[in-house]
Design goal:
16 helices, 13 strands, globular, 316 residues, five-stranded parallel sheet, 2 domains
Length: 316
């Protein structure tokens, strides 16, 4: 996709290093909204999306500020084990507080293209700001963005090594996927709450991850675009029946969900995954809100556990 080609060009272009004797170096970083001059090895980084927290954690760097949607529990224990607890919340991902960000005196801000493009000038007036496409990016672009961030913060080689280790884990999971596959069986991930069921399309983050692992998705890629709505599709019971996944992976966003309400409906009972008891619940937060290297490895853990049960019920 175009986003992947753009990010690949960033990696190929590299970063221009500027130095004047003993004066601190800086680098020009190309990103979605232009080019930004970033200090060499910035120390006071503010990140405005979970995937950017993930990229810092992947190379052991702690931000001074981050967005947690005013819900501290959304910064998982896996991240806290690496970045600690000394960061400051700057509000929600949708509307971060510019005042809070400025008070932290950052030397780098990492923002999302979809959520923060309109605030780019204001953010850039506070500190050097780079903008990446987290919200509508897929799994492959998330890894490429991680490398862009690694390069930007002076951790290029460390990020390359971390991506390589992650890729080895990915290949191991991919090798195990075959045990859960059989001819004609499709898989589908979605999040479910009292407000509805949202299936993740092939070009979404987790849709692309499952496909990269070799799992055929139930939801068609027809009409795929780069919008949030095309990637995360609100799905009615009738539509779920038509899509008819063989294995359904669901992340709960609430205790009482629409699938709970559908459980006695004949149409729901006829869905192959429901009929064959191949519905598995996973962490909605980890799968749907988080992205990146650390997040994907959390997904791998739950996916492998679910696929082992799929294989067991299939008799393999």
């Amino acid at each position: 996709m175009g986003n992947r080609r753009f990010l690949s060009s960033l990696a190929a272009a590299g970063f221009a290093l500027l130095s004047l004797g003993g004066i601190a170096q800086a680098r020009d970083v190309q990103h979605e909204l232009g080019t930004t001059n970033v200090p060499d090895e910035p120390k006071r980084i503010v990140v405005l999306e979970f995937s950017f927290i993930d990229s810092l954690a992947a190379v052991g760097v702690a931000p001074v500020g981050l967005t947690d949607d005013n819900k501290p529990e959304r910064i998982t224990e896996q991240y806290r084990a690496i970045i600690g607890n000394d960061f400051v919340s700057v509000g929600t991902r949708k509307s971060p507080s510019l005042e809070m960000i400025a008070s932290l005196q950052p030397d780098l801000i990492i923002a999302d293209k979809t959520r923060h493009s309109s605030a780019y000038k204001s953010l850039s007036a506070i500190a050097p700001t780079i903008v990446l496409d987290s919200l509508t990016g897929d799994y492959h672009s998330a890894l490429e963005q991680a490398q862009v961030i690694g390069d930007a913060i002076g951790k290029s080689e460390e990020m390359k090594a971390r991506v390589a280790a992650h890729t080895a884990r990915f290949e191991s999971v991919k090798a195990n996927v075959a045990n859960a596959k059989k001819e004609g069986r499709t898989f589908q991930f979605g999040v479910v709450s009292s407000r509805g069921l949202y299936l993740h399309a092939p070009h979404s983050y987790n849709g692309s991850l499952l496909m990269a692992l070799g799992l055929p998705l139930s939801l068609s890629a027809e009409g795929a675009g780069v919008s949030y709505e095309s990637a995360y599709v609100k799905t009615s019971l009738e539509q779920l029946s038509e899509i008819n996944p063989g294995v359904l992976l669901l992340g709960r966003y609430s205790e009482n969900t629409v699938t709970d309400q559908w459980k006695d409906e004949p149409l729901y009972k006829a869905v192959t995954a429901v009929k064959e008891e191949q519905v598995y619940y996973v962490s909605g937060h980890n799968w749907a809100r988080l992205r990146g290297i650390v997040a994907s490895e959390l997904t791998f853990d739950e996916l492998e556990a679910a696929l082992a049960k799929v294989a067991e019920k299939t008799g393999k």
